[in-house]
Amino acid sequence: MTTASTDALDAITPSNSVTAGPGGSVNGEAVVPGDKSMSHRSVMFASLAEGRTSIKGFLAGEDSLNTLAAFQAMGVSIERTSQTGLIIDGVGMHGLKAPSESLYMGNAGTGMRLIAGVLAGQKFSTQLTGDESLSKRPMRRIIDPLREMGAVIDSQQSGCPPLVIDPANALAAISYQLPMASAQVKSCVLLAGLYARGRTSVTEPASTRDHTERMLRTFGYPVETDGAEVSLQGQGKLSSTELEIPADISSAAFLLVAASIAPDSDVLLKNVGVNPTRTGVIDILKLMGADIELQNRRDAGAEPVADIRVRTANLKGIAIPESLVPLAIDELPVIFIAAACAEGTTTVTGAEELRVKESDRIAAMAEGLASLGVDAVATADGMIINGGTIGGGTVETFYDHRIAMSFCVASLCATDPITIRDTHHVETSFPGFFEQCADLGMVIKRQSLDG
Ligand code: S3P
Fold it and tell me: Which of 24, 47, 233, 444 is the least crowded, having the fewest Cβ atoms under 10 Å away?
């Protein structure tokens, strides 16, 4: 078996294509980068707080760095004390200043949708732009409730970015029934609710990640959760705090699947966030027969964390319970890879939200799996995958980080190398992904398709 050394990866530059596999095992300990959802929120809430907040474990990925730059552009002093450490001098709920240019949110739906909630309550106008992928993502889901609150917000006619947000006379609290299970929409409404007169409440059709609720409480802002309803009273204040952001379970998921499908593998992932609204991937992989153990469970502030040990297992196909889908929404692409390596059929339903992520992830995964010879059929809201042999070939990433990383993991079970075209967007959530894979024993090589 060949194992690429990290030195051999020095030449990997962000826009390169990567060739992975075939085969290999993964072994050792790894600490994956900080949680992306919490990193975005930490910068937003610390900026709006009164006083100085210190943050450890911040994800220095493109998405969260764009959020950081947006708040700097609105006058917040943010010092990067290390690669993952920040000190933020909050300006209070009403201390943000008009930025001199549009705020560029890059690839980040979370960045754009959450910041729009904050900007709806400001006394200045802003424009929010994004990259090619974000510019195609639906924003009516936040525009509708924000307008109901009295916000002055507009998009392109298509309902996509850029967004223009102008000052509103005053925001009014609403009781909002979320039409889809979306933590981004829930959070956007709650953040606008911070500026509204009265009590804003959001009811979810299914449980979604609750980092906004937990982190607002950490900043001393009361948030009430009553079954599916979350509510807060507007016009309070946030007080500075100290935050420690755990490793991102969505990034850990690639290695959970890698160690499960590769022979002779045993990996320990340290300090991973295991908030129950995020652990659907563990539940699904366990239902498929994975050998996953949570060790050293503890709390990092308001968020539960654990070390996760995962070893090779014989996976079997399952019908993924729809109740787990929102709790594993970002991990489904790599779960599709687990399904392609499993014995039998896996069906995913109720996952139509995958069609409006950084790419249409149902179409992108179906196309990639088909080009590797996997029997996978896309449906309107999911996929039917018959496990079996994964061949080699070239796959497109559609500029989507999770598609790129998923097919890298697939190479562990492939008969021939898999070339993943344009892996640049991996930088948005998991800087150093390919280097970490190589360090754990995967076969990773740079291959420029341009030459
Ligand atoms: C996120 C919520 C999810 C998820 C995204 C991060 C968040 O999106 O897919 O990666 O941080 O709130 P939706 O709320 O649109 O499902």
Answer: 233
